[in-house]
Amino acid sequence: MALFLVGENIDKTRGHYLSETGQLIQLMRGIYVTSGSNIEELVLKHSVRIAKYLYPRAYLSAASAALLGPTLDGKLFISGPRSQRTRIRNLEIVQNKAPEFSSTAPAIIDDGMGEFKIEVSSIRQRFLESFRRKSEHGASIDTAMRSAMAKRVIEEFDSTEKTADALWAIARKNEWFWEGEQAERYLKQGLELSPIQNEASFDLVVAWHGNPIGTLSHDGFEWYWRAEKGFHLPLVRQTIPGKLPPFISALLPEGWLENILKDSDERNLLRTGKRYMSNITVSNSKKDLKQLPADILSVSLSQFSSGGILQEHITGHAEIISKPLLSGIWPTFIKVLKPHDFPVYRSKRRCHLTIKVYYSQAQTYLSRIFLNLPGLVVSNICQ
C-alpha cells in the first residue's frame, strides 16, 4: 500500500500509464494509490501530506494544529488564501481564510513515507481562534484542548496578565477584539470554574444477601446499571438502555399497594426503601448495609399463632408506622382481611402495633405491605 504524488515520488507519464493498466487508482488530479489497498485508511494516514501537496501556501489550524492530523470525524482544518472544502473519500479538508497577520510555527510530521515540515498556527493564535463565533474551525477545539492551551500559554509567559498582553498583540493586528476579550476572561475565570453537577443525580448500592452486586445510578434523565467486578450472574441486567433493570422494577410496589402509596416516581421509591424481600437491599451507601439487621426467621411461626390466628408484633418509629398505616394502608387492610381485633398502642418515640388476623389470609399481604415501608424493621414476619 502506497501513496503516489505526481512530482514527488512519481512522474505524470508513469502515473497515467499505471492508472490506465489498473495498477494504480487515481483519487484526484496528481494523487494515486496502489490498487487493492485500503484507500480510506491510507487517505487518513497521509492526510497532512495530501493537504500540503494540494495547498502549499496553507498551514494547519484549529484542532488539526493541536493534533497534527485530522479529527476523529475525518476533518483536517487548514487556513490559507481562501475558504474552500475538498473531500477525498472519507477525508474532508476544511480551509478558511487565514488572518492577515498569521502567527505560525514549523512542525515535523512523519506519516510512514518520511519526515516533512509544515507550518501550524501558534498556540496563541489557536487559543484565540477557539473563541471565534460561527466558525467551524473554532468549534473543532473542545474544552479539554482549550484548557490545555491556556495552561501552556500561561507557563510560557509566567502570569495571566502577561499572557493576556501577548494574546492581545495578535488580536489587535487581526481585529479579533471579541476573541481577545473572551480569551482574557477565560484566563482569569474559566480555569477556576468547576463543572456544574446536577444535584438530582444519585447512586444506589444493590446488595444480594448483604453483598454488593452493583450500583444503580440516575443522572436526572435515565438509569444506569454497573455490576460489581466478579458478579456475572444474569440476575440483574439492563435490557433496555436508560430504563430500570426488570429485576429491580419487579421489586417496586404494584396493584392496590401502589394506589395507596400514590407515588409513581420510581426514583423516590428506591431512594426511600431499604429492604426488598429478605435477600435484596437497596441503599445509598455500603455503610448502610452493615447497619441493617439480618432478616432471618429464627423461630417457628407456631409460636405466634393460636387456633389458626397469627399474632404479630411490629416495632419501629411512631411516625413511620402510624402515618402510612393508619391513613392509607391500614384501613384498606381492615376492609379486605376483616381481622378480629387490631389494637394500636402509641408512645412518643416508639409505636407498638399488634395485629391479629387469620394466618392464611395475612401471610401474603403482610409481607407486601411492611417490607416496602421505608425505614421499618419487621421481626419474625412470615415470609
Would you give an account of this structure?
By secondary structure, the chain is of the alpha+beta class. The chain has 3 domains: 38-192, no CATH class; 202-291, no CATH class; 301-370. It is built from 15 helices and 18 strands. It has a 5-stranded antiparallel beta sheet with strand order 12-11-10-14-13. A 4-stranded mixed beta sheet has the order 4-5-7-6. Strands 15-16-18-17 form a 4-stranded antiparallel beta sheet. Strand 11 (211-218) and strand 12 (223-227) form a beta hairpin. Helix 5 (123-129) crosses helix 7 (143-157), helix 7 (143-157) crosses helix 8 and helix 8 (160-173) packs antiparallel against helix 9 (177-188). The chain is elongated, with a radius of gyration of 35 Å. The protein starts with a strand and ends in a 13-residue tail after the last helix.
Brief summary:
A hairpin with a 4-residue loop joins β8 (104-110) and β9. The protein has helices spanning 12-20, 39-45, 47-54, 62-67, 123-129, 136-139, 143-157, 160-173, 177-188, 246-249, 256-261, 266-272, 286-291, 318-337, 359-370, and strands at residues 3-5, 24-28, 31-34, 59-60, 75-80, 84-88, 91-97, 104-110, 115-121, 202-208, 211-218, 223-227, 275-276, 280-283, 305-306, 309-317, 344-346, 350-358. The chain has 383 residues and is an alpha+beta fold.
Number of domains: 3
**Distance from first to last alpha carbon:** 70 Å
Radius of gyration: 35 Å
The main sheet orders its strands as: 12-11-10-14-13
Give the uncertain stretches in residue-range form.
Answer: 336-383
What portion of residues is helical? 25-40%
Mean pLDDT: 79
Q: What spatial form do the alpha-carbon principal axes imply?
A: elongated
Helix tally equals 15
Q: How is the main sheet built?
A: 5 strands, antiparallel
Beta-strand portion reads 15-25%
Structural class: alpha+beta
